[in-house]
Amino acid sequence: MNNLYFIGYEAAQQTSEQLTEKSPLANNEIVNNKIVQLAKQFDMTIVDSGFKPVANQIYFAYSHPWLSLYLELNGRVTRLQFDLAEGEVGFRAARVSKSNEVVAKAIGCKPHYRPKVFDATAGMGRDSLIMAMLGCEVIMHERSLPIYLLLENALNRLQQKWPDISACMHLENYDSLQVNEHWIRERKVDVVYLDPMFPERKKSALVKQEMRIFKVLAGEDADADQLMINTLKSGVKRVVVKRPKGAEHLASKKPNHEIIAKKFRYDVYLNH
Ligand SMILES: C[S@@+](CC[C@H](N)C(=O)[O-])C[C@H]1O[C@@H](n2cnc3c(N)ncnc32)[C@H](O)[C@@H]1O
């Protein structure tokens, strides 16, 4: 998946037929500037009219302030955008309860203490948002470039709505497997949070086409055990792993304790 193409926002349609229509780049300065800037930064091609979407190629469209990704999967072109401040995600985030959130217990929040968290598998940024809402500083790593770009765009929109919260969320396009003891110490990380993909999620959450596309972009996270081993070696005080109920422990490491939530569980490891 090395080829990423930008299309103008006029081309931001949802079906293959519509995508093949003539679609000149929008005559809109903000939109054009944003597309040109991203295309330059990430070495992408700008496609502005009369193209056919190719299976497994990723297309982006920017319609200020939304970045959308289009991917053809099984003959259907689907659009993917990330919400943080908007929709259900924003609604839930606005109602975060400082005392009742399960994640607050898992990461070790206390009445006058908020840990600095490193979310090593940022994804759609939803868990990071909840932790930032709880008052934590969160460093977020996402290694998939398309997912990173969508998340960065969602964070930009979050900044308009909740600037104080977005100021606590620091996203980097980086592979967390590279993180070591020195980095953890230098960035003053108290807790590492891991939520790698889990194949069995296919049956439940991944039924939606958007979630299938997310999985194509992120892959299976087959190296999650290695990430866990590296994380424990980094000497961080606490590691929290989000797992589906009934799943094995990452790297077969038994946690110090488990917190069971409605749909998943948290494995908590304390590093002494
Ligand atoms: C299940 S999703 C995380 C969902 C996230 N907790 C949320 O609330 O939206 C897993 C994400 O972690 C990313 N990921 C997996 N291993 C990684 C690594 N070693 N470094 C950076 N990102 C990683 C994947 O690309 C994927 O986007």
From TrEMBL:
Key words, A-Z:
Cytoplasm, Methyltransferase, rRNA processing, S-adenosyl-L-methionine, Transferase
A GO BP term here is: methylation
Source organism phylogeny: Bacteria, Pseudomonadati, Pseudomonadota, Gammaproteobacteria, Oceanospirillales
Protein task: Specifically methylates the guanosine in position 1516 of 16S rRNA.
E.C. number = 2.1.1.242
EC class, as a word, reads transferase
What are the subcellular locations of this protein?
Cytoplasm
Its recorded name reads: Ribosomal RNA small subunit methyltransferase J
Species, as recorded: Aliikangiella maris
| Pfam families named in the record | SAM_MT
Q: What is stated as this protein's family in its record? A: Belongs to the methyltransferase superfamily. RsmJ family.
- Identify the main location: cytoplasm
**Highest taxon listed in the record's lineage:** Bacteria
> Listed GO molecular functions?
methyltransferase activity
Q: Tell me yes or no: is ATP-binding among this UniProt entry's keywords.
A: no
Asked if Cytoplasm is a keyword of the record, the answer is yes
Q: Which reaction does it catalyse?
A: guanosine(1516) in 16S rRNA + S-adenosyl-L-methionine = N(2)-methylguanosine(1516) in 16S rRNA + S-adenosyl-L-homocysteine + H(+)
Q: Per UniProt, where does S-adenosyl-L-methionine bind? A: 126-127, 142-143, 195
